Amino acid sequence: MSKRPAFKTLSSFDIKPTSQRIDIANIIFRKDQHLSAEDIITTLNDNGSTISRATIYNTLNLFAQKGLIQRVVIDSSKIYYDSKTTPHSHYYNIDTGEISDFKCENVKISPLPELPENTLQDGIDIVVRVKNSK
Predict the structure, then answer these.
(1) CB of 15 within 8 A of CB of 62?
(2) Domain that holds residue 74
(3) H or E stretch including 19?
């Protein structure tokens, strides 16, 4: 994604297209992928960028909040950002750290637990943890 499409995409999600946000968007939207904040920091540093960690984390949180990317929470210390936002779920290989997508349209969770009072379901995230067979 060049600066012009990134500018238009961010604007269409009501995100002010600063140069830092455009640089981060260009990394995330190169292809469908799962990147950690550290992956993005490394790529930016390799390209000579001096965007602060705080700006990167704030930008990723903003992009997720606006629906531009999807958070994939493996555990409290492993959060990835997915450029593919259509409904899908993930396999996480605990041996390799690889994340891959699978469609979840035929997955049924039934019965769903009763929701707490005065709440509505906002979504269900599925991460299937796998490991290599010996």
Answers:
(1) yes
(2) 3-82
(3) helix 19-28
86-99 tens-digit pLDDT: 888 899 999 999 99
Where residue 51 sits, what CATH number does that domain have? 1.10.10.10
> Is the residue at 87 inside a domain?
no
Q: What is the pTM of this model?
A: 0.83
Please give the structure tokens belonging to residue 57: 């984390």
- The answer to whether residue 48 sits within a structural domain is yes
The total number of structural domains that make up the chain: 1
What are the tens digits of pLDDT across the range 59-90?
A: 999 999 999 999 999 988 899 999 998 888 89
What HEC string does 95-134 produce?
A: CCCCEEEECCCCCCCCCCCCCCCCCCCCCCCCEEEECCCC
